[in-house]
Amino acid sequence: MKGRRLGKRIFQRNEPVTEGEYCICPKCGHSTIHVKGRPCRRFLCPVCHIPLTRSQNSFHSKELKTDSAKSKTLKYPKVDIEICTGCGSCIDVCPVEAISLIEGKAFIEEDICTNCRVCENECPVEAIN
Protein backbone atom coordinates (compact mmCIF):
# COMPACT_ATOMS: atom_id res chain seq x y z
CA MET A 1 0.00 0.00 0.00
CA LYS A 2 1.13 3.50 -0.72
CA GLY A 3 1.33 5.92 2.19
CA ARG A 4 3.06 9.09 3.16
CA ARG A 5 5.71 9.55 5.77
CA LEU A 6 5.04 11.93 8.68
CA GLY A 7 7.67 12.00 11.39
CA LYS A 8 8.79 8.42 12.02
CA ARG A 9 5.56 6.65 11.05
CA ILE A 10 3.82 5.94 7.76
CA PHE A 11 0.07 6.57 7.49
CA GLN A 12 -2.41 5.53 4.87
CA ARG A 13 -3.55 8.25 2.49
CA ASN A 14 -7.17 7.82 3.50
CA GLU A 15 -6.60 8.84 7.14
CA PRO A 16 -8.33 12.12 8.05
CA VAL A 17 -6.12 15.19 7.93
CA THR A 18 -7.06 18.19 10.04
CA GLU A 19 -7.18 21.19 7.73
CA GLY A 20 -5.18 24.26 8.79
CA GLU A 21 -3.33 22.46 11.59
CA TYR A 22 0.32 21.50 11.53
CA CYS A 23 2.84 19.59 13.60
CA ILE A 24 5.81 21.91 13.91
CA CYS A 25 9.32 21.73 15.39
CA PRO A 26 9.60 24.40 18.10
CA LYS A 27 13.33 24.71 17.48
CA CYS A 28 13.88 24.88 13.70
CA GLY A 29 10.32 25.42 12.40
CA HIS A 30 10.07 22.26 10.28
CA SER A 31 6.36 21.59 9.77
CA THR A 32 4.12 18.84 8.48
CA ILE A 33 0.35 18.56 8.16
CA HIS A 34 -1.34 17.26 11.32
CA VAL A 35 -3.09 13.92 11.07
CA LYS A 36 -6.22 13.74 13.22
CA GLY A 37 -5.93 11.22 16.04
CA ARG A 38 -2.12 11.20 16.01
CA PRO A 39 -0.46 13.37 18.70
CA CYS A 40 2.23 15.62 17.22
CA ARG A 41 4.58 14.89 20.13
CA ARG A 42 4.87 11.28 18.93
CA PHE A 43 6.78 12.47 15.86
CA LEU A 44 10.37 13.66 15.87
CA CYS A 45 11.73 16.51 13.77
CA PRO A 46 13.92 15.03 11.01
CA VAL A 47 16.38 17.92 11.48
CA CYS A 48 16.56 18.42 15.29
CA HIS A 49 15.25 15.03 16.50
CA ILE A 50 12.95 16.61 19.09
CA PRO A 51 9.17 16.07 19.46
CA LEU A 52 6.88 18.23 17.32
CA THR A 53 4.14 20.46 18.76
CA ARG A 54 0.70 21.41 17.39
CA SER A 55 0.19 24.70 15.62
CA GLN A 56 -3.05 25.99 14.13
CA ASN A 57 -1.28 28.62 12.05
CA SER A 58 -1.07 27.97 8.32
CA PHE A 59 2.60 28.80 7.91
CA HIS A 60 5.34 26.57 6.61
CA SER A 61 8.96 26.05 7.59
CA LYS A 62 10.21 28.12 4.63
CA GLU A 63 8.55 31.19 6.13
CA LEU A 64 10.18 30.57 9.50
CA LYS A 65 13.71 30.50 8.11
CA THR A 66 13.81 34.14 6.99
CA ASP A 67 13.63 37.07 9.37
CA SER A 68 11.61 39.18 6.94
CA ALA A 69 8.91 36.54 6.59
CA LYS A 70 8.94 35.99 10.35
CA SER A 71 8.27 39.63 11.12
CA LYS A 72 5.52 39.97 8.50
CA THR A 73 3.51 36.79 8.95
CA LEU A 74 3.84 35.71 12.59
CA LYS A 75 2.34 37.34 15.62
CA TYR A 76 4.28 36.32 18.68
CA PRO A 77 2.61 35.50 21.97
CA LYS A 78 2.37 38.50 24.28
CA VAL A 79 2.33 38.55 28.08
CA ASP A 80 -0.31 40.64 29.83
CA ILE A 81 1.73 41.90 32.78
CA GLU A 82 -1.43 42.91 34.62
CA ILE A 83 -2.51 39.25 34.81
CA CYS A 84 0.89 37.48 34.97
CA THR A 85 1.67 36.08 38.43
CA GLY A 86 5.28 35.15 37.66
CA CYS A 87 4.66 31.47 38.43
CA GLY A 88 7.22 30.29 35.85
CA SER A 89 5.05 27.61 34.21
CA CYS A 90 5.72 29.10 30.79
CA ILE A 91 9.46 29.15 31.39
CA ASP A 92 9.48 25.44 32.23
CA VAL A 93 7.72 24.41 28.99
CA CYS A 94 9.43 26.74 26.50
CA PRO A 95 11.51 24.46 24.24
CA VAL A 96 13.89 27.23 23.11
CA GLU A 97 14.22 29.10 26.43
CA ALA A 98 12.79 32.32 25.01
CA ILE A 99 10.96 33.27 28.23
CA SER A 100 12.50 34.82 31.31
CA LEU A 101 11.23 36.58 34.43
CA ILE A 102 11.85 40.30 34.60
CA GLU A 103 10.70 42.04 37.75
CA GLY A 104 8.52 39.04 38.60
CA LYS A 105 6.71 38.97 35.24
CA ALA A 106 7.24 36.72 32.21
CA PHE A 107 9.00 38.27 29.21
CA ILE A 108 9.16 36.62 25.77
CA GLU A 109 12.20 37.38 23.60
CA GLU A 110 10.89 37.52 20.03
CA ASP A 111 14.37 36.99 18.55
CA ILE A 112 14.49 33.52 20.13
CA CYS A 113 10.78 32.63 20.11
CA THR A 114 9.68 30.13 17.43
CA ASN A 115 5.98 30.90 17.93
CA CYS A 116 5.15 27.33 18.97
CA ARG A 117 2.69 28.75 21.54
CA VAL A 118 3.28 26.00 24.08
CA CYS A 119 3.53 28.73 26.74
CA GLU A 120 0.08 30.04 25.84
CA ASN A 121 -1.52 26.68 26.61
CA GLU A 122 0.48 26.21 29.82
CA CYS A 123 -0.27 29.56 31.51
CA PRO A 124 -2.68 28.86 34.42
CA VAL A 125 -4.02 32.44 34.51
CA GLU A 126 -4.19 32.90 30.71
CA ALA A 127 -1.82 35.85 30.74
CA ILE A 128 -0.20 34.84 27.44
CA ASN A 129 -2.09 35.36 24.20
Annotate the secondary structure layout:
Blueprint: E1 3-6, E2 9-12, E3 17-24, E4 31-35, E5 53-55, H1 61-64, H2 67-73, H3 89-93, E6 99-102, E7 105-108, H4 118-122
Antiparallel strand pairs: 1-2, 3-4, 3-5, 6-7
Short description:
It comes from Maribellus comscasis. This is 4Fe-4S dicluster domain-containing protein. With 129 residues, the protein is of the alpha+beta class.
Keywords:
129 residues; alpha+beta; Alpha-Beta Plaits; 2 domains; three-stranded antiparallel sheet; two-stranded antiparallel sheet; 4 helices; 7 strands; elongated; iron; iron-sulfur; 4Fe4S_Fe_S_CS; metal-binding; metal ion binding
Structure description:
This protein folds into 2 domains: 3-71, no CATH class; 75-129, Alpha-Beta Plaits (2-Layer Sandwich). Helix content is 16%, strand content 25%. It contains 4 helices and 7 strands; from the N terminus they run βββββαααββα. The longest helix has 7 residues, at 67-73. It is elongated and about 40 Å long. Mean pLDDT is 76; it is low at 10-15 and 58-72.
